[in-house]
Structures are given as C-alpha cells and as structure tokens.
Amino acid sequence: MELMNWREQMLEDRDGLIRVSLEGNIGVGKSTMLYLLQRDPRLQRVLEVLEEPADSWKNVNGTGLNMLQAYYEDPVRYAYLFQSFVFITRLLLHKSAARKSQPVILLTERSVSTDRVVFVEALLEQGYLDGLEAVAYDAWYSTVVNALPNILADCYIYLRASPDVCYERLKSRARSEELGVDMDYLQLLHEKHDDWFLKGTSVVSGQDGHGGTGSSRGGHLRVIDQHRRSPCGIQGRSVLVIDCSSDLDMAEQSAERDAILDQIVTFLLSRLTAKSQSQSADICDQVSVEFEQILINSQSHHQGTSQAPAAA
Questions:
Q1: Fewer Cβ close by (within 10 Å): the C or N end of the chain?
Q2: Where in this chain does the record put each Deoxynucleoside kinase domain (predicted)?
C-alpha cells in the first residue's frame, strides 16, 4: 500500500516536472556546480536542487553510525548493504520533492541509474558484489523503477575530468570518509561513466570530445543509444557532456566558467521549451538546435574577448 501511495504521489503531483541528473566522478566538482546553478538568476523560480543524501549515509537514522565510511573501509562486507541503502535514501528524497508544486526543473546530484550503471557495475568488476547479490539487487531495483518510473532522470549532465584531476581535488577537500578512495577506484568509475555517457551514446551537436569541432573546453550533446541493453530504461535520454579539466577552478569566476554555466543553463531552459512542445515536436531536435546556438554564441564571445586566466 505504501508503494502504491508513493506511486500516485510521484506520478500525479509532479506530472509536469523535468528531472535532470548531474553526473560525474568523485571529486569532479558536482557540489560546486549545484551551488552555482542554484544561485543563477536565470533559473530562479524554475529550479530545485537535490543534493545527494550523504548526511543520511554518514549518520544512519540519527545513530551517529557512518555507513559511507564503513563501506570505504570494508567494501566486501558492506557493498551490498551500502548500495541498497543509497537507493532507499534517493527514493525518500524524491518522495519529499514530489510533495512540492514548484518549481518545474528538478536537478539531482546523481541518480538511481548511476547506482546501477556505474557503482554496481564497478563493484561487480572489483569482486565486492557476488553474483547472487547482483541478481537480488536487480530484482528489487527493476521492480521499484517499473512501479515508480518518475524516479528516473529525463536527461543528464555529465561533468567529465580525468581521474588524476579528480584525485587532486579529492585530496584538497580531505573528507575523512574518502581517505580510502584511491586512483584505481577513480579510474574504474571514470571508465564506467564513459561507458555510459560516451561509448553508449551518439553525438547530436557540439564537439564530440574525440577530434570533433569546437573548443577543447566545449560541451557536446549526446543521446543514449536506443538499442542499448540496460536495466534502467534510460535509452533515448539526452546527455550534455561538459569538460572539467585541471586548469579550471569552478569556485573561481572566469570567462571559461561563465561559458560552461551558459551551456548548462541553456540546456536546462531548453528542456522547458521542449517539454511544452512535446506534443508536436521532437524533444531531442529542439534541444539540439538551442544548444547549437549557445555554442556559436560562446565561440563568438571568446574570439572577440581576451580569455581570463583560470584559477590554479
């Protein structure tokens, strides 16, 4: 009965909600980007940000027990428990958001799809999840996602940086529960993200990140392949891929940071236009046209002005 109540609440109360997931490796800068977007005047009254419920992982049910730290310290023992708990806390976060009537764009830090496509796959490869645990996870995961399809993102923004860059940023923020995160793990997560958002997708517009046109810092729009096999029902969703290289500090104002924000804001706002025209137009084509225009404007701006130095 409780699951059915959630289903009614999430399908009916927020039927017009556009769900976008901000994705990327540990240390890539997701929290900083969420902070900037939440305060961007162009998104006022239309954007709601949901950060990962990490506090719930670090203080389980108010007991002071830190499941995130326990997982990093003993992944063989806690991998299945932690990933299951992460899914539950994301679901609770979505339930809370479903009660609100405004705004219309819900931007989440990662998604339930990330848990399955990136982290569970990585744990299987590392041997921290066995076959039985993986089958059990998929059994209840698929059941819940099929019953509550609105917990899936409509589209994605992938902040991409090398594992080396993420590792340096991770060390600089020095979170105690992340002390056990090493380069090998970041490399594995990087590969899983790329498998999802690059290898499993097709380029729609912008530079392709592999020798295509546009600036090296530019973003590009992709679409997850329709034929791709996935337990998440994410085929056909659009992905904005943004380069977050080592010489760009998102915490410091610069021309390059502003250009990236312009691309992301345009992508988010174009979803509103596409949503309103979804009865008579192809959403992906609409987003592609508007995103291509912001790339042209951004390139013209950089050709006509000197580039501000990026923070170290």
A1: N
A2: 21-267
Kindly state the DSSP code that residue 242 receives in the 8-state scheme: E
Task: Examine the residue annotation and report whether 109 is marked as an active-site residue of this protein.
Answer: yes
- If pLDDT is split at 50, 70 and 90, which confidence band does 310 have? very low
Element (H, E) at 301: helix 283-304
Tokens of 100: 């609100």
Joined tokens for residue 92: 């609770």
- Total domains, the chain: 1
- Which tokens is 10 given? 């999430």
For residue 38, is it within any domain? yes
CATH code where residue 194 lies: 3.40.50.300
Residue 104's φ and ψ, nearest 5 degrees, are -110, -15
Q: Tokens 């390139």 label which residue? A: 299
Domain-embedded: residue 312: no
> Who contacts 128 (Cβ-Cβ below 8 Å, separation ≥6)?
75, 76, 79
The predicted-structure confidence for 107-142, as pLDDT tens digits, reads as follows 999 999 999 999 999 999 999 999 999 999 999 999
If we measure between CA atoms, which residue out of 30, 27, 24 comes closest to residue 183?
A: 27
For residue 64, the SS3 value is: coil
Q: What is the sign of the dihedral through the CA atoms of 264, 269, 271 and 274?
A: negative
In a domain, residue 309? The reply is no
The answer to whether the predicted template modeling score (pTM) of the entire model surpasses 0.85 is no
Tell me whether residue 260 is in a domain. yes
What six digits make up the tokens of 304? 């006509």
Which segment of 113-127, 207-221, 262-276 scores lowest on mean pLDDT? 207-221
Distances (CA, A) of 244 to 19, 118, 163: 23, 19, 11
Catalytic residue, from 23, 52, 109, 133: name it.
109
